[in-house]
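pasting for ref. prot 1 ->
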Amino acid sequence: MDVQAGEFVSVIGASGSGKSTLFKLITGLLEPEQGEIKMNGVKTGNRLGMVGYMPQKDLLLPWQTVVDNVCLPLEVMKENRRQVLPDIREWLARFGLGDVEHAYPDELSGGMRQRVAFLRTIMTGKELLLLDEPFGALDSLTKRNMHSWLLGLWGNLQKTVLFITHDLEEAILLSDRIYLLEKDSIQEINVSLPRPREAEIIYQSEFIAMRKELERLIQHET
């Protein structure tokens, strides 16, 4: 499995196929029994803190405001918050959160909470971001809105993303490539749809055909 800088790569597969275990291996929470993991082409034994990680639940601190939650990685890294606050406010505006920077998490919609959690992940400053079903808990309409938002934002992020999802439509819409984890192997699927993409691409025949093929591959495994 190989992920290039700047790519958006999704990981799909049946429950129990090892998707979350793969993320734990990459983050350094687990070590492989065989094979090796390289970052920027270099094998490293201690990977803890080398990537940004966003779980399905936003895990926002309820007693902290939006801007405080976003700044949490900076505090962990002991950076001067006051110096970077103008940049953070610019990011908040790009994420559509400029008007709620002083709001608390329980005052936000589900989609806004996920935007805050995503921005907090970006604030780690890591080139590789691991997103573990970040939109999985959202209702279908909010999820669609998040897809449109992320597609519009993606070109300027300049990040590498590994993205776990059970939503095949989501995987095709967002990704450059998809890895299907199987019982004893891994299969790579290239997404040839051009970028930039609009959410309406899901109605095109090429998109529908690719989704049918992914469904066939997964059903074959299960």
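and prot 2 ->
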Amino acid sequence: MSTMIMSQCWPIQGISATQKAVLISLADNANDEGVCWPSIASISERTCLSERAVRSSLRKLEDLGLLVSHQRSGRSTWYTVAPDGFNPGTSCPPASDAPRHHVPPTPAPDAGHPGTTCPQNRKGTVKEPSFSAQPGKTPGSVKLGFGLTDLLADNPHGASEQVLADWLTCRKRMRAAVTSTVWDRVNTELGLCVAAGVSADDALAEAQEAGWRGFKCEWVLNRMERLADSVATASRARASPGRQELDHEDKSWATGDEGV
């Protein structure tokens, strides 16, 4: 959840309670770039709305410039919540050249071609989105957010899927978004770790155990060195006990020579 996106969505006025519920649900799932990918069924369950009401609200939020939807190669849809596309406290006034009393007809529930992600909008009421060919990217090929699939696709040091999934979960708990820039820097540091003899899995596991928001090879090596020193110190302490061990085979007490 992005508290920044959420805090920008709560003050918005001029939309229905149903649309507000869908918007807040999306914001609750979004990262700091506003990117999220919940299913229609998931939104419906979270908001207690029918799937038809959710779809209608998503279209309306797009019309108002509060949301941009992106089609992922025909398989699924992901969204960018854009609260800055709408002026909080207004009811989305029409453009200066739009008829003052004209109310556009409500589109049919099945209007539009399946897979359409950029519906036609009234002039002046929405910021027009444009999409790149690759999912997750805006114009200029700037990656908005990385998921597990993206990490596995750019994984030169062979980190396992489970470790990458765990690392993403830790980042999410710390509300630290993973972008292409972040992952590029992590990959650079992982390369240094591998060169120093530490596998990518071990390096990422150390970062998770330490609870680091950032990631540096130097931190990993220093942490592993300290842990090794602690283990060595404990081993030496066990090898040199501080008191004399009892001799359970000693029978001197039976001869009366204990005072000699």
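Residues 3-121 form a domain with the Arc Repressor Mutant, subunit A fold (CATH 1.10.10.10).
The beta strands are 35-36, 67-72, 76-81, 137-138, 142-143.
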